[in-house]
Amino acid sequence: MKKRTPFLLAAVLFLLVAFCLVQGKRPFRHLQGEDIAEARVTLTPPNVTLLVPDKDRLAALLQDVTLYQQDDSYPEYTGQGVLFTVTLTDGTTTELLAYLPFFVIDGVGYRTKEAPCEVCSQYANTLLDDPSLVFLESPPALSVTSNNATIGAYLAKAHWQQSGHALPTLPDQNQDPFPCLDTTATTATLSFTQKPGQILSVRARPLAKTDTAFVSIPISGQEIPLSPGIYLYEVTAYWKEQNGCGGFAVYTFSIQANPTEF
Length: 262
Fold this sequence. Notes:
The structure is a single chain. By secondary structure, the chain is of the alpha+beta class. It has 2 domains: 18-133; 142-261, no CATH class. The chain is 16% helix and 43% strand. It has 3 helices and 18 strands. The strands form 3 sheets. A 7-stranded antiparallel sheet has the order 2-1-4-5-6-7-3. The relative contact order is 0.13. Residues 8-22 have low confidence and may be disordered.
């Protein structure tokens, strides 16, 4: 009997470990709404950040999140990512990414029980229906489309507010300040990731003639007319302050329009 004791202990230990793996862990099972000072969620796509209005609801959803073994292969997967940034009343901030079949905590991925993770994603998507929850941490991106081709505009400068404080917004030094779009069409369409309250101006000048003044051009909805040749365009847009964020931004891009189409 004594010789069998180590074998029995090992078997019991194995069963306990296996049971824990099957059962999973619920790291937020004690979380309450009153523990959360602020919560935001970023959905990608459509690359929108929203305030989470119901802290009790969020806490209840996170309580059910169940984690299994660690698995950091989540960057290899595609799909919608739902990133909750949760700040607790003790000042700590945690990033929680619901990304089926994973749940990621501060960059560490875990396999997760599907249903609770999916419910978190579904709840975040329902918030898209309320524009008042949009939280613009920085100026929205602008893309320009013409003749089924699209480029991203360059953020030249901005004056932006976040929670009542002016934030320096620096252009991306790795981005071409004058990204160029080739087209045979006579118009182009502007698309912001978050629609501005007002497009203040659209101006253009020949790209090569740096000593030439910009000239205002009309805009109809989100569509602008194009001039034949290679022109530099400048768009200035304004977002009214909402949830402590807003301001104006200036974008630039160039378009080479085929003159034979005019």
